[in-house]
Amino acid sequence: MAQFPTNLNEAIEWLASFGGEPEGGVTRTLYSQPWKEAQQALKGWMEEVGLLTYYDAIGNLFGRLPSPNLNAPTILIGSHVDTVKSGGKYDGAYGIIAGVLALLHLKKQYGEPSINLEVVSFCEEEGSRFPVALWGSGMMTGIYSYKDINNIKDSEGISFETAMMAAGFGLTEYRVRKDIQTFIELHIEQGPTLEKVEKSIGIVKAIVGQKRFRVTVSGESNHVGTTSMKWRQDALHGAVNMIHDLYESVKEYDEDLVTSVGQLFVEPNVPNVIPNHVQFTVDARHPKESVLHSFCQRFTEQFHDHAQKMNLDSQVEMWHEVQPAQMDHSLNEIIQSICTSNSITFHRMNSGAGHDAQLFARICPTTILFVPSQGGISHSPLEYTSTQDLEKGLEVLIQLLHQLAYNH
Amino acid sequence: MAQFPTNLNEAIEWLASFGGEPEGGVTRTLYSQPWKEAQQALKGWMEEVGLLTYYDAIGNLFGRLPSPNLNAPTILIGSHVDTVKSGGKYDGAYGIIAGVLALLHLKKQYGEPSINLEVVSFCEEEGSRFPVALWGSGMMTGIYSYKDINNIKDSEGISFETAMMAAGFGLTEYRVRKDIQTFIELHIEQGPTLEKVEKSIGIVKAIVGQKRFRVTVSGESNHVGTTSMKWRQDALHGAVNMIHDLYESVKEYDEDLVTSVGQLFVEPNVPNVIPNHVQFTVDARHPKESVLHSFCQRFTEQFHDHAQKMNLDSQVEMWHEVQPAQMDHSLNEIIQSICTSNSITFHRMNSGAGHDAQLFARICPTTILFVPSQGGISHSPLEYTSTQDLEKGLEVLIQLLHQLAYNH
Fold it and tell me: Which CATH number fits domain A8-208+324-406: 3.40.630.10, 3.20.20.370, 3.30.450.40, 3.40.630.30?
């Protein structure tokens, strides 16, 4: 008989062993061998703690603690089992493990709930094997369909469909459930806020909207020494003026607005030649779509103005967009009162990263709770959250589910 | 018997055939087979037109039209035979060819000069095979010595010394000549100025000084979405503020100051990660050392100030420096009067690129004359100067040499 974990810490290490690497990282990409082994092991563990288990058509795994009331709706709790390449032990995994342990505790302590409680181990969220993210929650919420994976391949040329079928999934139609009443996710913060403000729980108000742009600036390549400043069409000088203004204008917005230029390429990129071509990315995020939209419109206009003044060509092209998702206010009020009455410190904040919860927010009351990430580090073998913080998150989740599913 | 060219245009095409490429470029790097063939061919041509020819110890080629006066000094005229990879037909080549044709004309027309006239085909100026530039003029002027090529290799791992000896040079001590009274170079402009101002001859006041820097900015890599603007240590944001200020402050200097950031690398250079490391180059040039020095000191201080304010580390390291070289005022006065009396339009200007003349300026009266480069293009197969412009340059050179070497 398999050895299953008996507490939070053991469970984190146990799940990290599927896809675990000698250097401490975890790689468990969608439909890979370590992924299959992890889902199968979680299924075994769920069954051992007394949950009814099953997969849906694409490999989301469920462990159900049913209500005796056959018409009861379902509260879904969980996160994703997949990881980025050489990721950490906590991202996704913590939300699934906490869900299983919460149901185990509630079942032992209080027996059958009046509303079905169900933990989910989403097959995919990271977008790290195929250029599709939030696959598990996207299909569950009916926002995605099989059409979204047509002609999509991984870096080795394996098609999404082939990989899915080889893992034993994608063989039947996907049936979108109608019984989900509430979705709750527990996740590491993946940022430095909770550590900086010294609080244990992050109560998420909204998952920010994102817009990502590719900006291309074109000028003329010339000899650095022989071309007077006034005759230059320097693409890097233009890009620098644009990015300088981008960061200046963000100061006029509220603190929730973040923007970054993470990637920048220069051509020909040699010391004594004036650059004729620069391409850079802009990532902008804010919890309110209207604010995000106005900011992006503003910098797009500024960029074109700079280009025109400097006799350069510019293109600003949006290549990725995510709508902001508001978390449920009532759920957050309950969480806050649980924290207060248990002397657990908390901080109301936004999530700057995307999560499965952002898609559920479109179909049902949803929230996501954060625990601190040491140094704000994530997507790295150095990802770490203290046992104490992990346990506080679990404690809040148990009390929340107790209030939602047993007080009827 | 070899076919030698009979006019300027023929000579340009003929010399370009040594190292000529199907796409129109010319590659004739130091001590390579096309280089050897070109120098040998030039030697043959010089002999045919009646010059005394010889090589020095490193492969500079000379063609001498001697004065009957055994104590006469020497006026040296010429430029470099080497090219960059896939360079043009005019850079360097024009100066040698014009020198040979000028001496041919003067000899035919006026016979023996009272001062020795000597054309030189410098072995190397571009620094395109080995990381040493101005090798030919550096050795002739005694500014370089064999020590400067110790431990220097080309991109294929061949040492400078091996390549030199394989070509038959570097076998004897280098003897620095004491008889050079004047150095005159005729060269394409390699910039757009003459074309923009619509003049035929550029009379060069100074070859600018250059300082080149490598700037390193280090911060901290973090998740774009989860890291508030106020907690960031964004190396690219820092670099952008530095470069923005660099280009702003250049506006406070005179028009002769040029500066450029030609190369910039970002790490990790992915759209959703805040850059933790940026490295960029700064190239600054001006004909006056004091101005150049003050500008470089100013931006170095500004860069460190920006880094400090933004909680970043910065390093500013100078890796290349060339002193400005003043061209001879009396020679330029004679050139100006020749232009005026022949209705040849001229423009007094600085050279933003380096040339052999800059080293000779340290040891004797020296000047360099420019002819226009179409579109300012050089170091490219597209390099082009019209026959008319080439001929005007040759005409001015002939009259200048006539005044200097025959009016005694």
Answer: 3.40.630.10
Residue intervals in chain A for CATH 3.30.70.360: 209-322
**Count of beta carbons in the 10 Å neighbourhood of residue B398:** 19
Q: Do A225 and B191 touch (CB under 8 A)?
A: yes
Task: Give B22-27's long-range contacts (Cβ < 8 A, gap of 24+).
Answer: B23/B86, B23/B381, B24/B381, B25/B85, B25/B86, B25/B87, B25/B88, B25/B380, B25/B381, B26/B83, B26/B86, B26/B87, B26/B88, B26/B89, B26/B381, B27/B83, B27/B84, B27/B85, B27/B86, B27/B87
B379·A223 Cβ contact <8 A: yes
**Are the Cβ atoms of B271 and A263 closer than 8 angstroms?**
yes
pLDDT tens string B273-304: 899 999 999 999 999 999 999 999 999 999 99
E strands, A20-60, are: 52-55
Q: How many interchain CB pairs under 8 A, A with B?
A: 180
**pLDDT single digits (tens) B355-379:** 999 999 999 999 999 999 999 999 8
CB-based contact A231 B192, cutoff 8 Å: yes
pTM above 0.90, yes or no: no
Nearest-neighbour CA in chain A from B258: distance (Å): 6
Mutate to test the interface with A, among B204, B233, B260, B279 (most CBs of A within 10 A): B260
If one looks up domain A209-322 in CATH, what number appears?
3.30.70.360
Q: Write down the ipTM of this complex.
A: 0.87
A241:B236 CB<8 A: no
Residue A214 is encoded by which pair of tokens? 């590719």
Which residues in chain A have Cβ-Cβ distances shorter than 8 Å to B266? 263-264
Nearest-neighbour CA in chain A from B269: distance (Å): 4
Q: Do A263 and B255 touch (CB under 8 A)?
A: no
